[in-house]
Design a protein that fits this description.
The chain is α+β, with helices and mostly antiparallel strands. The protein has nine helices and 17 strands.
Length: 493
């Protein structure tokens, strides 16, 4: 399961490659946004990148006028200036924090870049890994990056440095330029940024000042002076990359679009990926499934033999034919019967009147369960406390003793039947003679006490001693039923 999830994540990552980008500011007046009202005589920059709304007004763009001995800069006049070179580091902003030292126009900067000055063609000829490398530690203030070990340390540049650098705070003048600045998130590429310098009624590093002399090429390309680094705020109007262009209105023929792929384009790339990626995945799955099935078939043929394979194939064909004919398998039939039974039970429950609550009688002895103590005592000769028929308590009982049966048992216990006396090995007694007296004492009188104090045991029938004054005649009973009735009336186990 985890392997499938990983495969899906990789697949989605490849599909959306180039479509996802770094977090950056949005255009407008909403949260974390920037909006620029650009005009050559007066430009206003509104920003909410600090959380609160800030406005930098009375800004004047500084343009360039080409010349044979170099271009000249003037506020509110001329065309864009150009910064060319090798992009070695950059920082995109979606918020600003005053703790880092950002002030004023810094809040309108959406991207800061470090560009090593050189012609565009020379920057494009640098092989990957051969260009300058910058280790950025902190870039909270757009014009004051904090860098560490690398081939260039941007916060330690001076006149003795071997390379010349531009540190630029970029302010987009249109929404399309703002979106195109995402292309600058990729380091180590040639870049050419066109725009205007900024003049303001303030003295701050990065603003154009009439007191300084700037080195500008004949084609209005900016050059680094003897200090080996220059820091500027730039109102960006266009960006040129090796694979495309970011224009002011987004109408350039080679307009760069976030997620675009050089040569083939974004749409063709997605289509090719879907055909190659998804098609290859489906093809690999089908091929692997067939290979596994073929291997399983060979293994089965080795285990069961050719005859078994033929029989298995015949069974499969017969099963398919039976299914087409409408026959049910045992599993399907059982499922259908269970479903019908549940439906019938549901209908019965709906039509059945509501049941009254039934009181359950508690047994006198919870440990006896279905066993009735009254029935056992009655069978031992102890009279039951109830006046009616004695039944066992609980849910069900296997023993029912009536009063008539209890009385009969007591009568049998009080009498001294001849058939229950011990058999004698001597000659048989004559029918008309007097009854013989038993020398054994009667144990019938003490049976109720024994039954209450100990579990009932099987009683032996003994003859009762006759009274000496007037012996009572013995009632004649069927001789063949005494033993049977006594056996069935005694339920002691």
């Amino acid at each position: 399961m985890r392997g499938r999830a990983l495969a899906v994540c990789v697949f989605l990552t490849m599909v959306t490659a180039g479509c996802l980008g770094p977090a950056t500011a949005s255009w407008g007046s909403g949260s974390s946004s920037v909006e620029v009202s650009f005009a050559m005589d007066d430009t206003t920059v509104k920003s909410t990148l600090t959380g609160a709304s800030t406005t930098s007004s009375d800004l004047v763009p500084v343009g360039c006028t080409p010349g044979t001995e170099g271009g000249s800069l003037a506020p509110g006049n001329g065309t864009e200036v150009t910064f060319e070179g090798y992009l070695a580091a950059s920082q995109l902003y979606d918020s600003h924090d005053e703790i880092t030292g950002a002030r004023g126009l810094d809040f309108g900067v959406t991207t800061a870049v470090g560009i090593e000055e050189m012609p565009f063609a020379q920057a494009a000829s640098i092989e990957d890994g051969d260009g300058s490398r910058v280790n950025v530690k902190n870039w909270g203030n757009p014009l004051m990056p904090q860098t560490g070990a690398g081939t260039a340390d941007l916060d330690d540049l001076d006149s003795e440095s071997s390379t010349s650098w531009f540190i630029l705070g970029l302010i987009p003048v249109s929404e399309n330029v703002l979106n195109g600045m995402k292309a600058l998130n990729e380091w180590h590429q040639p870049v050419s940024i066109s725009g205007y310098l900024v003049s303001a009624n303030a003295t701050k590093e990065g603003l154009w000042s009439s007191l300084r002399a700037y080195e500008v090429g004949n084609d209005c390309s900016m050059e680094v002076g003897s200090t080996n680094y220059e820091k500027f705020y730039v109102l960006v109007t266009s960006i040129e990359l090796e694979g495309g262009t970011v224009s002011l209105d987004g109408e350039a023929d080679d307009e760069w679009v976030h997620g675009d792929v050089p040569l083939i384009g974004r749409t063709l790339f997605v289509l090719l990926f879907l055909v190659g990626g998804v098609g290859g995945f489906v093809g690999a799955y089908v091929t692997s499934s067939r290979m596994v099935l073929k291997s399983a078939t060979k293994t089965m043929a080795i285990l069961v033999g050719s005859e078994g394979m033929e029989k298995a194939g015949k069974v499969s064909k017969d099963a398919a034919a039976a299914k087409e004919a409408g026959m049910e398998s045992p599993t399907e039939r059982k499922a259908r019967m269970d479903r019908e039974r549940r439906e019938r039970e549901g209908q019965t429950e709906r039509t059945k009147p509501p049941k009254k609550a039934k009181k359950e009688e508690e047994s006198t002895d919870a440990g006896l369960g279905d066993f009735d103590l009254d029935s056992v005592l009655a069978s031992a000769g102890v009279p039951s406390k109830s006046s009616g028929p004695s039944t066992s308590s609980g849910r069900s009982s296997s023993v029912v003793v009536t009063d008539a049966a209890a009385n009969m048992d007591r009568m049998q216990a009080s009498e001294a039947p001849v058939s229950s006396a011990p058999r004698s090995t001597g000659p048989p007694q004559q029918r008309g003679g007097p009854p013989q007296r038993s020398s054994q004492p009667s144990a019938v009188r003490n049976e109720p006490e024994a039954a209450t104090s100990s579990p009932p045991v099987r009683r032996k029938r003994v003859a009762k001693k006759a009274k000496p004054a007037a012996p009572e005649p013995v009632a004649e009973r069927p001789p063949s039923h005494d033993e049977d009735e006594d056996s069935f009336s005694d339920f002691s186990f």
